[in-house]
Amino acid sequence: MSSLSRHQVLARLLAGSVAAMLLVSACSGSTTPATKAPGASASGAPAGGQEDPKATDSGGKIMVWVDAPRQPAAEAFQKAYPDIPIEINAIAGNVGSTDLQQKFALFNQAGSGWPDAIFFPSNDDIAWATSAKINYARDLSGILKDYLSGYTAANNAPCNIDNTVRCARNDSAPDVFWYNAKLFKDWGYTPPTTWEDYQTLGIKIATEHPGYVSGFLGDAYAPDRYLWASGCPTNDRLSETKAHINTSDPLCKRVVDLIDKMVAAKALSPVGIFDPNAAQVGPKLAMSPGAVWWGNYLFRDTWKIPAGQMTATAPIHWSSENPGFTGDEGGGLWGVSSHIKGKQLDNTLTFIKFVTSDPRWQVELSTGLPAYTAPQQAWLDKGAKDGYFNDYPTTAAAMVAAGNAVRGNHYYMLYNTGGIWSKTVTPVLTSGKDLSAAWDAFGTQLVNEAKTFGYEVVATGN
To answer: For residue 246, how far is the Cα from the chain centroid?
Structure first.
């Protein structure tokens, strides 16, 4: 809700805003095109997230780019630090968009224009932002070493790239297992603990209570929810130029089989969680794996499911894996420019620490569980007072524990797995067919796009 890059606002930039952004300098360099310097890439960008040799200092003013859900974070910082001059630019929240990458390539050519800090609309953006070609995101492992220790290793894992820390995570977004406790009590069901039991119960619910569903397949987070949790190798980054992709792996096939059986029984909906008609299907959700932010963002605020019904438990696991693993749906990432230094950098780091850990954003305004450990308990305490969930102690415990159950060997890549799923799988499911009917096309497109972005694709993880 990546942050939420998870619940991204699918809005376009206002007419002319793209051109305006390209003209605006972040006060982070001259307008003279950069030339290659020692330690820089061919584009003139610093290597490995190091500070640009031509980094400049505005004297303190910073410019930050945020999507709509993070606009309140930037405004809260502005209120909390009136002595730090800040310019806030709104950007579109399109998941999988290439617009930003194109802008940053132009900034590199011009030698100016980069924002000092950015909330990446899609977590996949961190791949190009740290690539040798763009190399925008600064390595924070040295300058924020003590601060970064406030994250658990799992919660900031998406930012750990090649022994550097290239971003700071906004919120924790692991999948827990959600179920409607009121319906389960009325129907006499017990929440499943394994994927196999989930399949069996989902089919039973669809048979005994037609119209109720046990999951959603039509959104770009669906492969994170199902494939990532199973360990299906779609995003196994072996290096910046090498990826392990194998949709024939048994860890993929077990998911395809599970989904096919549930689709055939009408236990899973082809609708995506962000689709307009999800508002009608959502209240019919009996159970599903889903991110921690589903609770406030989807159930309470979007679908208006009455209080006292939804509860989260620990992630379900495959019977052969206990304890098991779960997937992750977002948990947005903040990046810092490698093109600034001095007071401008200091103020940008103050901003980053505020938006990732200060209660004035992370507790008072954010709907997502903070990824940074310090404000988590206050956020959970606020939820307890809200009284929305059926069993809040169980829900809160599941939210925190799930963060450490996210399966490893899954990275954000230059290709967008969720976007490929939406193009190849969602239309087939919507037409009434099962996942198997789209699986070959999904796997082929995944490999083709990876190669298009320059990856060498191998079928094993070696």
So the answer is: 22
C-alpha distances in angstroms, 141 versus 49, 123, 159?
A: 10, 19, 10
Find all residues with CB under 8 Å of 4, minimum gap 6, and list them: 69, 170, 171, 173, 293, 297, 330, 331, 332, 367, 368
Longest dimension (CA), the chain: 70
**Do 242 and 347 lie in a common domain?**
no
The candidate with the shortest Cα–Cα distance to 285, out of 293, 296, 273, 274, is 273
| Cα gap 362→83, rounded to integer Å | 21
For 36, other C-beta atoms within 10 Å of its C-beta total 12
Does the structure show a pLDDT above 70 at 292? Answer: yes
Q: Are 354 and 361 in contact (CB under 8 A)?
A: yes
Partnered with residue 236 across adjacent β-strands are: 244
Asked whether residue 27 carries a pLDDT value surpassing 50, the answer given is: no
pLDDT tens for residues 354-370?
999 999 999 999 989 99
- What sections of 29-133 are H helices per DSSP? 71-80, 99-110, 125-129
Q: How far apart are the first and last CA of the chain?
A: 32
Torsional sign, CA 256, 260, 266, 272: positive
CA-atom Rg of the chain in angstroms: 22
Residue 165, sorted as left (phi over 0), alpha (psi -120 to 50) or beta, turns out to be beta
Domain interval for residue 366: 17-171+330-374
For residue 297, the 8-state DSSP code is I
Asked if residue 141 and residue 114 are part of one domain, the reply reads: yes
CA–CA gap between residue 203 and residue 222 (Å, rounded): 19
Domains contained in the chain, number: 2
Q: H-type helices in 317-435, by residue range? A: 342-357, 359-362, 376-386, 392-402, 417-424, 426-430
* Joined tokens for residue 277: 């008609």
What is the C-alpha separation between 83 and 71, in angstroms, rounded? 19
**For the whole model, what pTM was predicted?**
0.87
Whether 318 is in a domain gets the answer yes
Output the CA–CA distances (angstroms, integers) from residue 173 to 1, 21, 224, 325, 337, in the order listed. Answer: 7, 30, 11, 14, 25
Which tokens sit at 175? 């999948």
Give the H/E segment covering residue 86: strand 86-90
Q: What percent of the chain has pLDDT over 70?
A: 89
State whether 337 and 289 are in the same domain: no
Structure letter (DSSP) for residue 433: -
Taking the C-alpha atoms of residue 63 and residue 118, their distance in angstroms, rounded to an integer, is 9
CA-CA distance, 255 to 276, in Å (whole number)? 27
